[in-house]
Specification:
5 helices; mainly alpha; binds iron/sulfur cluster
Amino acid sequence: MENKLIGCCGLDCEKCDARIATITNDDALREKTAALWTKLNGVLITPESINCTGCRVEGVKTPFCDKLCSIHNCVREKGLDTCADCKKMNGCSTLDSIVKNSPFVLENLKHIQNEK
Ligand code: SF4
Ligand code: SF4
């Protein structure tokens, strides 16, 4: 069965600190994650916004992985589940915003392709 905890972009939501902080209701981990994401993204991300169960499963989502995510929006507009369903996956400049820092997402997406 397809792993719905692999996000639209191939990130592994199961290992994401935002999801772990949400399902364990860990405010210290929310603060740590918000501080790290603020540093990485150069915009203020508050601990209150660190609430997410995963972008492809039911439940709360951070805006950064939902409405503000260009990859999630692209997948949604195309009526796909993930970038693994897209013929443009290899070399996509939108997906590259994740691939450049987390190249393993391509392996996760290829794994989804092989599961289908
Ligand atoms: S969708 Fe949520 S759980 Fe998945 S990577 Fe993004 S913030 Fe983390
Ligand atoms: S165009 Fe790029 S971001 Fe959009 S679904 Fe295809 S691979 Fe994903």
